[in-house]
Structure formats: structure tokens, C-alpha cells
Amino acid sequence: MTENVHQTDVIIVGAGPVGLFAVFELGLLGLKAHLIDILDRPGGQCAELYPEKPIYDIPGIPICTGQELTDKLMEQIAPFDPQFHLQEMAEELTKLDNGNWLLKTDGGVVLEAPVLVIAAGGGSFVPKKPRIENLEAFEDESVFYAVRKIERFRDRNVLIAGGGDSALDWFLALQGVAKSVSMTHHRDGFRAAPHSVDAMREIVASGKSKLHIAQLKGIEGSAPNLTGIKLESKETGEFVHECDMLLAFYGLTMKLGPVAEFGIDLEQNLISVDTEKFETNVPGIFAIGDINTYPGKLKLILSGFHEAALMSQEAFRLARPGERLRFQYTTSSSELQKKLGVR
Amino acid sequence: MKILVTDGHGVEHEVEATDGWTIMEIIRDAGLPIKAECGGSCVCATCHVIVNTDWFAKLPGKNEEEIDMLDLALEVFDHSRLSCQIEFEPSMDGMKVTIASDALM
């Protein structure tokens, strides 16, 4: 357990806008932070769901997109050198004898800090899974929601379900790797980039691949090996498409995940906190942003920013016992300006 | 004015509807278990509902964004809609919808 434990002041679970701004507020007080996020980049919902959608209610910023807000926050917190552990899910939390928290991720990252901040928004982003009976029994062997190693698909007969960029990109990328690649989608229209759609249609027209306009209905084979996928088309009804791998791309959904097992009080899948410190019922564990609840809570990014500022005050007291917290303004404090690298 | 919303247990709820609110907002405000993860931005498909046949034809049609986003529904039916994209108006008084299984909390 001693191997490669990242020691820090604050562990932040979730690198969405509120988790990112927490780095700033903690940084002003001299606290270092490590962030964990299941996505492959910072930004949370802003980056995953609406990178190109405009946001109009950030104080002082009349309009910015989710991606622009993320980029600006990354720029703002850069002086504090936050450490990111991306594509990692916070999995196991232990209270150490020294009073610190030890957090392990599903990918084997181990972090130790006196303060844990949960800024996980709607929870972890996880793939949406088709509603097919017994599907789980085939997962990771013949049913996948992402391509981690392209070699797994070599010389296999792959069926790809979905109509977005992931579906089309992998349809194209697996050509020449897989023995055969087919597609199924509920309509004869695709929201993926037009050039990918054109390329796919060309391959289908050449007879190399099949395109079914049909929906997933069932799975054939004995788990974990599938022999075919039952599809239903409006015109021809149910039929079986023979294949040995299914790649399903229906986007992501949010689940609270292992955080629910951390021993924190929950209220309808949200974390109850006080409104002075945004601390949970467990001392040293805080929850800020969309994931928390308290009387009057509004799920707004700006509320999360406020929560981050108040949380940081108490985080300082826990992480720096015996030190006095000096409240200062960035406008006037040369100490803060040095931290921000502007002086 | 009201709409009738069927939940995951097949129970029909009569819900007060407000002119100008989206169907998603009306369902959510009534405390029924609809995910609506993105909060009405038409980017997630977790407010998927199936509209009663008679009512479906009376609704304003889907725009391209909604059609695209419905691709993320796990099963798309003939009368599938994203409830965040339907704005309630008095002519919809009494409309019946069912929350699709992939939109249930």
C-alpha cells in the first residue's frame, strides 16, 4: 500500500466546473489538490454533454459554451498546478489512523489527503446499456461499449449499434481489422459527421458490410460468447444477425456509483450537506455542486462556485490545523497575486 | 389543465400542466421519476416519453436536433419524443404520455 500513494491536501472527485473552481479557491489558501474523473478530459457535463451549447448564467460572462467555460477554468487554475487522474473512478475509501482519507480508484491510483471533496455532479458517466435480457453475462467478452484494444476485434464478426460519431468512427476503423463489420441503427439517418456517413454508405454499397435499419431485441449464444443478435426491423420484423461481437454506442448516462458506499448520508441519490461548510455527515468529506442537497439548493454552476469557496475555508482548517486562516482579496493581496503568478 | 403520465409501474398520474412549460418540466415538477439528466438542453435523451397515439399526431413535429438525440434512446418507438422538446399549450390539455424505461430514475 505504500507504493506510489499520492499525498495531497485535498482529493476532489469530479473535474467538472465546480471541481475545477474548487482548485482555485483551495489554491488561494495554499492547499494543493488532486482531481479524479471518469471522463478522459476535464469539464464534466460541460465537456461531455454540451461542449458547444451556450451558457448564459455565469456571472460576468454573458455567453460562453461548456467547452469555453472549461478552458477558462483550466486557465484560471493553472497556477495551482492541479494533478488530474482521468478515466479513473473513485472506488474505495478508507479512514487511516492518522485521520487522513485513503482513496483508491478502479484503475489502481491511490491518493491520501485530510480532505475529500465530492464534486461529482450527476455521478459517474457510464455507458447506456441496451435493454436486452442477460446482456451483462456477455459483457467484456463479446459485448462492449467502447474499444479499448482494437486487436480484440481482429478477425471477428462485429455488429455496431448506434448512429453517432463513435459508432461510425469504429465502423470505419475496424474495416480490415475485423473479419466483418456491420451496422444497425433504428433509422436510416445518422447524426455522425457527414463524411463518416458517406464513407460508411460507400462501404455498404460495395457489399462489404451490411447496414440494418433495425433495433436490438435479443442476444443469441451461450454467455459469454454470442453467436448472433436478434434485431427487429419495421419492414421485416424480427431476424437474427450472425456475429460474435457487439459494440453498442448509445451515449452515456450518470450513476452515483461507489460514492454511495462511502458511508455518507444520502437523500434521493444526492449528498446531504450543511450550508456553512458544505460538509457531509462525515467530518472531512465535503460535497459541492449538483451532487449535494440542502434546503433551497439550486443546481446552478454559480451555486457550486459559492459552495467551493465556503468549503475551502473549512478544508484549510482541517488540512492546516494550528495555522490561522488569513482572508484576503486577489485584488489587493500581493501574497495571492504571487500565488497566481501575476506579480 | 392537466396531462396524464404513466410511470414505470404502469400507474397513471394526473399532473397539473402549465402553459409554456415543457412536458419534461411538468413531469419533473410533479415529482415523477424522470431522469432528464441534461436539464432540457436536448443533449441526452433521458427525458424520453412515448406519446399516446391520438395525441402524437396533434403535436408539433420534431426538429432535427430532437431526431438526432433520439438516437440515444435505447429503444425508439413510433411515438417516441423527448419531453424537453414539447412545450405545453392549452390544446394539449389531457394529453397522455408514458415515461420510457430508459428515462426512468
Write a structural description.
The complex is a heterodimer of chains A (about 350) and B (about 100). Chain A has about 350 residues and is an alpha/beta fold. Chain A has seven helices and 24 strands. A five-stranded parallel β-sheet of chain A has the order 6-3-2-10-23, covered by helices on one side. A five-stranded parallel β-sheet of chain A has the order 12-19-13-14-15, with helices on one face. A four-stranded mixed β-sheet of chain A has the order 1-9-8-7, with no helix packed on it. In chain A, α1 packs parallel to α3 (about 65-75). Chain B has about 100 residues and is of the alpha+beta class. Chain B has one domain: Ubiquitin-like (UB roll), CATH 3.10.20. Chain B contains three helices and five strands, in the order ββαβααββ. Chain B has helices at about 25-30, 55, 65-70; strands spanning about 1-5, 10-15, 50, 80, 95-100. Chains A and B meet through loops of A and α3 of B.
Task: Supply the key terms.
heterodimer, A: 343 residues, alpha/beta, FAD/NAD(P)-binding domain, 2 domains, five-stranded parallel β-sheet, 24 strands, 22% helix, B: 105 residues, alpha+beta, Ubiquitin-like (UB roll), five-stranded mixed β-sheet, 5 strands, 20% strand
